[in-house]
Design a protein that fits this description.
about 290 residues, mainly alpha, 7 helices, about 0% strand, rod-shaped
Length: about 290
């Protein structure tokens, strides 16, 4: 889509034509077919024509200055109408890629327009019409005076606007040049924003994957913790029971040993009593 620029028509000021050819009517009225006077008339015409062209040049400079100055803002506003926002900090990479495509298309069209304007701007004198001075303007016009002019008639209508068209094209090329500069800067900014958006999206994907993994592993971790706690409780109960059984067995062994010691003591005591009784009986028999 082409970028629409503001109207560049030069409004009539103070004349209906950028070059007031009517003011040179004396070329026709004062003809006398005398070579010297004709030359003086011709020189007068060229002097007045150069002054008139400089008036047009000054006016066009004033008219186009706001357009050249405001070309950047106009370009950004036009891009906004085409859907390219100024702030792309929250735009996705796909959206920014679309914005870049729009800007690239606008750049192609602006460069084509600039090439056309440059050709038209060279039509007057074969050089940069913006840099012409009064003498060069005069020389360029003299070279365009048709040799078959009759009676030094008015400036041909086909030649009246050629300077204006070339100069307007040159000024418009400055407007388009500023537009291209703004588009190139916007293109560079969008390329930077595209890289930043890609980084944001990668980080977002990583965060999303991390969140999904957390959501998936959280129940499993809870189940694992519960199972580990159950096993710990089971092992604790088993250890407690084992210790109690071991203590009971030790107690039974100690009781059995104690009973065995008591029985041995009883047997020893009984045996000692019998020995003493036998000794007493032998003593009595003697």
């Amino acid at each position: 889509m082409a970028i629409e620029l503001p109207e560049t028509t030069v409004h009539p000021w103070p004349d209906p034509l950028p070059i007031d050819a009517g003011s040179f009517a004396y070329l026709y009225n004062e003809r006398d077919r005398q070579g010297r006077e004709q030359l003086a008339t011709f020189n007068r015409m060229m002097t007045d024509l150069a002054a008139e062209l400089l008036r047009v040049k000054t006016y066009l400079d004033t008219s186009y200055a706001p357009l050249i100055t405001g070309a950047a803002q106009t370009t950004l506003e036009t891009l906004g109408l085409l859907g390219v926002p100024l702030d792309t900090s929250s735009s996705s990479a796909a959206d920014i890629a679309g914005y870049i495509s729009t800007v690239n298309q606008a750049l192609v069209e602006a460069n084509d327009q600039l090439a056309s304007l440059s050709t038209e701007a060279l039509a007057f004198s074969g050089g940069n019409v913006l840099e012409l001075n009064a003498s060069q303007i005069k020389a360029a016009n003299m070279s365009r005076i048709p040799k078959h002019w009759r009676a030094w008639g008015p400036f041909p209508a086909s030649e009246q606007g050629i300077y204006q068209k070339a100069y307007e094209a040159a000024l418009q090329s400055r407007v388009v040049g500023q537009t291209i500069k703004t588009l190139q800067e916007r293109q560079a900014n969008l390329n930077t924003s595209l890289e930043q958006a890609k980084v944001r999206e990668v980080q977002s994907v990583r965060q999303s994957i991390s969140s999904d993994l957390s959501a998936i592993t959280a129940p499993a971790q809870q189940q694992l913790a519960a199972h580990r706690q159950a096993l710990e409780n089971q092992f604790s109960d088993s250890a407690t029971r084992t210790n109690a059984e071991r203590e009971a067995a030790n107690q039974a062994v100690r009781q059995a040993v104690e009973q065995a010691y008591q029985q041995i003591d009883a047997l020893i005591t009984s045996a000692g009593s019998r020995v003493n009784a036998g000794n007493s009986l032998r003593s009595t028999n003697r």
